[in-house]
Amino acid sequence: MGKIILTGDRPTGRLHLGHYVGSLKRRVELQNSGAFDKIYIMIADAQALTDNADNPEKVRQHILEVALDYLSCGIDPAQSVILIQSQIPELCELSFYYMNLVTVSRLQRNPTVKTEIKMRGFEGSIPVGFFTYPVSQAADITAFNATTVPAGEDQEPMIEQTREIVRRFNNIYGETLVEPEILLPDNAACLRLPGTDGKAKMSKSLGNCIYLSDSAEEVSQRVKGMFTDPDHLRVSDPGKVEGNTVFTYLDAFCRPEHFAAFLPDYANLEELKTHYRRGGLGDMKVKRFLDAILQEELAPIRARRHEYEKDIPAVYDMLKRGSETAREAAAATLDRVRHAMRIDYFADEQLINAQAQAYNRKQS
Ligand code: TRP
């Protein structure tokens, strides 16, 4: 069946730089590498509803935003199938069968689920749908026979859970499902980009995000206000690079050619860090450098977004076609699953004939 990618995002907000370095940029590279036979990118609205049941409008509104973010980053619908999860009902049926292969205690041990339960204040009153979303994510992945799931490290427990379900299924019902592998970002700084305030993660509620759809001015404002080394009070003071958000972002975004273009006094990032550590390098200078790099990276994305924004019905049309294509693939997997589980009764002449014979014998 070849090498197949499946990955996705919950449509609960616009996508930001954390998504971009953590997965979006990589997806586009993977797409353009030609190394994959199929690429599916899922807007996981049904998963988003598992913890937004009371706010479906938020999810509904953000499907388009996420689609625009994908397109503007260079996901090309001619090469990658963009689909909306809820439009593939086959995923529900797969989830229903997979639920039997997972225990409650195994789900309780899933580190990502654990963290999210705390974050959402769900302790003691966990919605069942939310609790079981790792199972539904296993359906997302296996429905498309995905071999490769490019995602951030927070998704590792989901992929592990999927692999367990696949092994269990294949063990009981025979070799049917494909065991996927996660593909983590290759740059350590991209594993988890901190918020502009230095907090562990970009999050809408903390207001520490740089969005892909932000204007150039908004990006500059965010960079100006970025958390640095709180003890680096005077330019002449020695500064800390570790835990300094501006440098973490440079680790993620800076390439050697940026020095020639924007900061020719330094040959590379190591030189810049050394100077900062020694003292005599001001935060503003480093921030201006980062701002120039981010502007260069984001300008073409913003421009493409403006183009797509001119024809929103066409974007929905693309999503509809992607969902239809994806549905065909998922239906084929579901057929194989039903066959492996031997619940394809009406196609099972052996079953029907054997039972008919047995009853015939009884009658005579
Ligand atoms: N859980 C992912 C997130 O929160 C979204 C997602 C849903 C996903 N289904 C997936 C990611 C399948 C990878 C593969 O971002």
How would you characterize this protein structure?
The protein has 364 residues and is mostly helical. The chain is 57% helix and 6% strand. The protein is built from 17 helices and 5 strands. It has helices at 17-33, 45-49, 56-73, 90-98, 104-109, 111-119, 128-131, 133-143, 156-173, 188-191, 216-224, 245-253, 256-262, 269-278, 283-309, 312-341, 349-363; strands spanning 4-9, 38-43, 81-84, 148-150, 181-183. Helix 9 links the parallel strand 4 (148-150) and strand 5 (181-183). Helix 4 (90-98) packs across helix 8, helix 8 (133-143) packs across helix 9 and helix 11 packs antiparallel against helix 15 (283-309). The mean pLDDT is 95. Bound molecules: tryptophan. Tryptophan binds at residues 6-10, 42, 44, 47, 137, 140-141, 149, 151, 155. Tryptophan binds next to strand 1 and helix 8. Keywords: Aminoacyl-tRNA synthetase, ATP-binding, Ligase, Nucleotide-binding, Protein biosynthesis.
Mean pLDDT: 95
Radius of gyration: 24 Å
Give the termini separation. 50 Å
Strand content: 5-15%
Which regions contain 5 or more consecutive residues with pLDDT less than 50?
Answer: none
EC number: 6.1.1.2
Catalytic activity: tRNA(Trp) + L-tryptophan + ATP = L-tryptophyl-tRNA(Trp) + AMP + diphosphate + H(+)
Keywords: Aminoacyl-tRNA synthetase, ATP-binding, Ligase, Nucleotide-binding, Protein biosynthesis
GO molecular function, one term: tryptophan-tRNA ligase activity
